Amino acid sequence: MVDDQRHYVYGKTRQEVQKRLSAIALKAELGMLLSESDILFGDWLEQWIDSYVNVRDTTLVRYQEDITQHISPALGKIRLCDLRTGHIQQFYNKELKGGMSPKSLHNLHGVVHEALERAVLTDLIAKNPSNACVLPRVRQAEMHPLQGAEVGAFLEAIKDELYEDMFYVSLFTGMRQGEALGLTWDSIQLDRGIIHLYHQLQKERKKGGKFRLTELKNSEDRYIQPAPQVMDILKRIKAEQDEKKRVTGGKWCNEMGLVFVNAQGGHLSKVTVYKHLKKIAKCMGKPELRFHDLRHTYATLSLQTGANLKTVSTQLGHATVAFTLDRYGHTTDPMRQDAADRMSAYIQDITGKK
């Protein structure tokens, strides 16, 4: 049986056409000439997700949402081999005009780019058309850490409040909200004063999704050694929970072993905790304060009180010290001045000159 399948090759020059023809002939000789040229981008995205993506569950769900809600409706019907930079750029521009934030668009681009990059590596296309796309600049969210007397004012404002312990521990450990909500007793070594963070509490990104413990943001666990005052609070909470369990029996059940729980022993709601914090912040006259600003406060306080930059970076769970310095470099100004003053004093001591 004769294979009458024809292949049309285009190029700017005769040499380019000849080069592409030679590549096709080589693939045909090796039995590699398949029908992938007809695969639609939407179908390839499904294959990519099923065969090549290896990420944590929450990230996988986001990828799938980006594909089904945005990418496939706009680009899914275009053949993979026909997809061009212009198609993708127009799609991005339309999403931006529709109200998508620059950060969300960058996430969307990450899915498109990785899927096309895999298509290049598997010889389905010659180059990645998303490489030439122009993306908007993502502006870093403005930080509003508590400063100076504001820290004391915040501690005073949360006294006897419903989530006082959680706010206090978060403020002086730098935990993210999901990490604090998902803090479990098996993560805490009360005798050694160490917290081993290895999961967070997240809600499944679907209608009726359940809350469950998942990997940390960067999928790497870390250790925190907080101030003794933090450990004292955790010891008190543990004693109180043990007493509740003894007194109420089956009426109080903390199945997940969480540190911060509601009256019945169940997990706390992220939205409820956040709203409660915003109410306190408003009363303080600092309405812009977010839960993440407690983490920023911990970072700035640690650096301002002389903590080692590497230690702070590790306890925050940052990938590099450079990221920590870029994020909080402004807080090290007093440290740089102190270093200059010390050097000045040293020079004066050995030279006698001011």
Output the structural class.
mainly alpha
Main sheet characteristics? 3 strands, antiparallel
| Low-pLDDT ranges | 29-35
Main sheet strand line-up: 1-2-5
Beta content: under 5%
Distance between the termini: 96 Å
Q: What's the pLDDT, averaged over the residues?
A: 86
The number of E-state strands comes to: 5
Shape: globular
Note the total helix count: 14
Alpha carbon gyration radius: 28 Å
What string gives the helices and strands in order? HHHHHHHHEEEEEHHHHHH
Assign a percent range to the helix content.
40-55%
Summary, kept brief:
The protein is mainly α.
Description:
The protein is globular and about 75 Å long. The protein is built from 14 helices and five strands. It has helices at 14-29, 41-51, 57-75, 85-97, 102-121, 149-157, 164-171, 177-181, 228-248, 270-284, 291-304, 309-316, 321-328, 333-351; strands at 188-189, 194-197, 200-203, 211-214, 222-224. The chain is mostly helical and 354 residues long. A hairpin with a 7-residue loop joins strand 3 (200-203) and strand 4.
Task: Give a topology summary.
Blueprint: H1 14-29, H2 41-51, H3 57-75, H4 85-97, H5 102-121, H6 149-157, H7 164-171, H8 177-181, E1 188-189, E2 194-197, E3 200-203, E4 211-214, E5 222-224, H9 228-248, H10 270-284, H11 291-304, H12 309-316, H13 321-328, H14 333-351
Helix pairs in contact: 2-3, 2-5, 3-4, 12-13
